[in-house]
Structure of ABC transporter domain-containing protein:
Amino acid sequence: MTLIEIRDLEVRIGGRVVSGVPELDLAAGRCTALVGESGSGKTTALLAVLGLLDGADVTGRVVVCGVDVLNAPEKILREIRGAKVALVLQSPQAALNPAMRLGTLMRRALARHGVKGAAARARAEQAVADVLLDPEILRRYPHQVSGGQAQRFAIALALALGAGVVAADEPTSALDVTVQAEIVAVLRRLREERGLALLLVSHDLALVSTVADDVLVMKDGGVVEAGPAARVLTAPAHPYTRDLLAAVPQMREQSREHRPDADGGEPDPGLRPGARRARRVTGSRRRRRRPHR
Ligand SMILES: Nc1ncnc2c1ncn2[C@@H]1O[C@H](COP(=O)(O)OP(=O)(O)OP(=O)(O)O)[C@@H](O)[C@H]1O
């Protein structure tokens, strides 16, 4: 079943094309990743899927869980956001109301989608258990949880609402290495067990190589190459993709000049050989924030 279908999507801001995706099909249980340099249009494409591009000139066709997003009334869009497609951001704590316990927050979100009382409590507890969090976390405030816990809570919120698609924008780049691997493991398990579909925006080629089935490589607001991750990341056809991949060891050498112990430490669980190196380098780009747990 196709959950996201994009055809000839073009987003213009101030007359300039800032993001364009000619074709994307995402089925249940699959993961498509948008990769590319900063400003290439990845986040804009993700926001288009959620119908969150007020003020932009958007053309083409975006169908999410049967809803024609670019032509749907705001009321319908509000219904699909959360209940069908959940957005997971780089720093979920920033998006959580600091004055509200996580349990309250989740129950309010459920109430907006018509689930209340004991059913909401049960749904919340099940969802946090599904991402391997102790239900006790529902009594805590956002500042009382780690970055990794907050990210798992954001995923749990998506599960509680019954979302079949998670749209994740750099979901691990604000987290430290061990926690990144935990989040990746949770996302992979949910795909396998629940058939969750994942639309992933990431700078992190290591993350992409471990979770994505398909990859779209974006540059200057367009897609320069698309195909199965196993092919695109090992035998890239486009010079830009080759540059992107070639930059990884090169940047590693640069970073080693500044950090003599750069290759120390144990390999990360859950990363394929070579991926750890790619992660370290790509994870140091502009959007990376200070790791926290
Ligand atoms: N609201 C806006 N107003 C003006 N320009 C915008 C707006 N939103 C995005 N852009 C421009 O659109 C282009 C694509 O931005 P986008 O955030 O989609 O890129 P990205 O690939 O996700 O980059 P990054 O990884 O840095 O977030 C950029 O040139 C950006 O400056």
